[in-house]
Amino acid sequence: MNILFVCSRNQWRSPTAEKIFQGYSGHNFRSAGTSDSARIKISTKLLAWADLILVMEKNHKQILVSKYGAAARNKEIQVLDIPDDYAYLDAELVAMLEASVTPFLGIDA
Length: 109
Prior knowledge:
Blueprint: E1 2-7, H1 13-21, E2 28-33, H2 44-49, E3 52-55, H3 58-68, H4 70-73, E4 76-79, H5 91-105
Parallel strand pairs: 1-2, 1-3, 3-4
Helix pairs in contact: 1-5
């Protein structure tokens, strides 16, 4: 399964998620951001690649649907509700990601 993590600038939350879940057998992970200043910006190519899109906040889902239309609407998009309050690999962020993402992966936290 291809899983895409999305936050705003692809600086802290989504790259942390991509990093900590790398290596889970049967899954591929990438990350991107919705902002024009994102390190890796969301694209139709990334949306097409993804089987599941996990966004950090509700507004990320709204941006994807409004900007990319059917390319986003036809995908499973889940909101993790993780605010932009953490640095890259912050221990609390890692714990929140592990708790919220693992149910989608069929693995134990």
